[in-house]
Every structure is written in C-alpha cells, then in structure tokens.
Amino acid sequence: MIEEGEADGSIFLRMDDWVRLIIPMLNSRLNDESAFPRWPVRMGHWTGRVSVAEGGGYTLGFPGVYATFTFTGGFLGCTTHAKNAFNAFHVSIDGGPSTLLRVPEGRAHLILAEGLTSGTHIVRIIRRNESWQGVVDIEAMITSAGGRLLPASEGSAASSARKLMFVGDSITAGAGIEEAPPELAGNHLESNAEASFGMELGRRLQAEVHLLGYGGRGLVRDYQGLNASQTLVAPVMFERALPDDAMSVWDHQRFTPDAVVVGLGTNDFSFGIPEQRTWIAAYDAFITRIREVHPLAWMILTNSPMFSVNQNAGNTARAATLVYYLEETVKLRRTAGDERVDLLQYRHQPGRPGNGHPTGPQHQQMADDLEPLLRSRLGWD
Question: By C-alpha distance, which of 261, 270, 260 is closest to 322?
C-alpha cells in the first residue's frame, strides 16, 4: 500500500516493508538566502570521484560517492541540478537509518534534515546510482539562519588512513541489489551502491572507498561486443572524474589506495570468449597503468561471480576460460617482477529470477570472500 501526504513542501511516499521515498519539490521558502544561507559544498568531507561544476559545486557521476556534513542548527538542505529524474541518494542523520532521497530533474532545493534539536549534527549522503542512470550537480549546501556548516577539519568526519578502490562493471556499482516493488521493477531504484561488496568492505575494514563501476562495460569491449573505439571501457574510465565526460580528467594524486580490486570479464565474455593473447595483453597494460599512478597498491584481480562452471555449457566455458586468462595475467605480472598481484575467485552468486546480478546478501558473501585476503595482504587487523 502507498500512502501519500505533505510535510513542509515535500511529498512522502511510504511503501510497506520496503523503503521510504522522499520526492523533494522545489520549495520557494528556500529561495530566501537571508533566511537560508548558502555554504560551499567543498566544506563537507567527500570520498569518491567528483568534478568541479560551474559555479564551484561538485558534479557526481560514479556510484557510491559519499559526503559527510557537520553543521549547527536544526536544518540542512542543498541545491541540486540533475540531468534527469533518475538520480538517488541515501541520507543518514546523526548515524541513524538511511532514507532514500530521489532527486528531481532540473534545479531544486532538497531538504536533507529539518526539525532537529539545537546543537551540532552530522548528515551523510551517498549516491546510489551510476553514471548512465543520471549525473547530478550539488551546487550549494543550505542551513537555516543562525546555523553554520562546519569545515570538515572542524567536524567529526576525519579521513581514514585506509583506502580501497574497486574497478569493475555493474556488479561493482551495486546494480540489481534491490528488489523493487512490482510497479518499479527494472527501475533505477534497484541500484544501491551503498550495499555493494566494496562499500561493505569499507565499513568492515574502516577504509575510505572509491567505486569505479559502470554497467555493461568491460576491459576491451561491452556486453554487446562493442570495442574501445565504439564505447567506454574500464581503462578509459579509470582516467576520468566523470565516466561519460572525456574532458573530466581525474588527478590520481587525490586518492592513493592501499589496494585496487579489479573485477572485469563479465561483459567481455558475455558476447563470446575473447581472443586470449589480446585480452591478457590488454589486462597487463591496464595493470601497468594502475601501477604507474599507484605503485605500492596491492592488486587483486577477481573472476565473475555471475559465471559458474556448474551452469550450462556456455557459462561453464566462460567461467573456466576467464579464470585461466586471469591466472595467466597474474603469472605474466609476477614474471615481470610485480609480486603485489593476486587472483581471488568468488563463489558463484546466482542473483534472483529475472536478474542475474548478485543480491544484497550475495554481495555480503562476496565481501566475505575478499575480506581475509585484504586483511592478510594489507596487515589490517
């Protein structure tokens, strides 16, 4: 059952046993900057790749980008400019449960928290979806009159010394994790980067996380068989602050991971098995490039949890061949003197009927598979 009501200019939809959706409406009272002063978004503590937008805000394209804002007063909002109506965030207030925030298309003022007691509060936002589902600018933060946004250095959102990077496809991005109600099945709301295995490992290991995931893309081609001259592939995406913007060059010095987990192959192999020498050479070149900018990081290559040798003959061949290619890639790297490279084989994760992407509990199992290796290699207790 869906109930609808109004509260301070926002429409709340409540769905039994699922999640509360807040669909913000343009709120005219927030136009009054004397009553609701603006603050630069850079004052928050940001983790994940962003690009500086026109006017000084941040543009978000990659999944799982998150920010923590410490402020005084009982209200916090933000001004956004979304390219479509498919962007979504999770919002948590003072460590409480997450609420799903859907961002409307165009420019809007969003209420993140209101009606709080006086004093200092913390709001955390995390982007759920990936670039092809929508890009959004966060232009400014908003407090109430008398309230103040504290610089990250004054707040309680200190940076973690531990850092992890996950490079991959829709699995890395958290696609298909949610099972939406029937009226929303197949919708972008099924994506949930916060529940992905990478973000879960960040929580378990108390590490900051960058997710570089894009659905349907691979190392040398996409799920349709289009190659690097025709579509985005992971080595190109790795160089960008926004995956679909060729002009948004990422500065690799802004984030130095202790480990880089690369999960590629699902889409390369979905159109058939790629030629061995070409694919391994491309993987070796990609690792070489990662090594150039992150020379001390542990590299962990993974198979596809969506393939299994116990499935039909087509997937059996794909599963076995992908693992063989990865083994050969690791051998090649170690022969060249790179000892900080490992192969991790996930258990098969079958997804759910009608959607082969791993579910939320299956992402937990993927984190279970990776966690011991990360702890061992990095010496993290």
Answer: 270
End position of a domain, from candidates 98, 120, 150: 150
Q: Is 156 inside a domain boundary?
A: no
Is residue 175 located within the same domain as residue 134? no
Per residue in 227-265, pLDDT tens?
A: 999 999 999 999 999 999 999 999 999 999 999 999 999
Q: Token pair of 259, please?
A: 């480990």
pLDDT of 184 reads 58
Q: 13 and 125 share a domain? A: yes
Domain that holds residue 353: 163-378
Residue 197 sits in the same domain as residue 264? yes
Q: What global pTM score does this model have?
A: 0.90
Cα distances from 368 to residues 30, 120, 372, in angstroms, run 45, 36, 7
**Both 214 and 272 in a single domain?**
yes
Q: Are 256 and 168 found together in one domain?
A: yes
Identify whether 90 is part of a domain: yes
The per-residue pLDDT for 27 is 58
Q: Are 198 and 261 in contact (CB under 8 A)?
A: yes
* CATH at 323: 3.40.50.1110
Least confident stretch, 26-30, 100-104, 159-163: 26-30
- How many structural domains comprise the chain? 2
Q: Is residue 54 part of a domain?
A: yes
Q: CA angle, 107 as apex, 104 and 110 as ends, to 5°? A: 65
Q: pLDDT-derived band of residue 7, with 50, 70 and 90 as boundaries?
A: very low
Q: Which of 28-37, 57-66, 136-145 has the lowest mean pLDDT?
A: 28-37
Which bin fits 142, alpha (ψ -120 to 50), beta or left (φ > 0)?
beta
What pLDDT is attached to residue 348? 94
Contacts 24+ apart (CB under 8 A), 20-25: 20/99, 20/100, 21/100, 21/102, 22/99, 22/100, 22/101, 22/102, 22/111, 23/102, 23/104, 24/101, 24/102, 24/103, 24/104, 24/108, 24/109, 24/110, 24/111, 25/104, 25/108
Confidence at residue 116, expressed as pLDDT on a 0 to 100 scale: 93
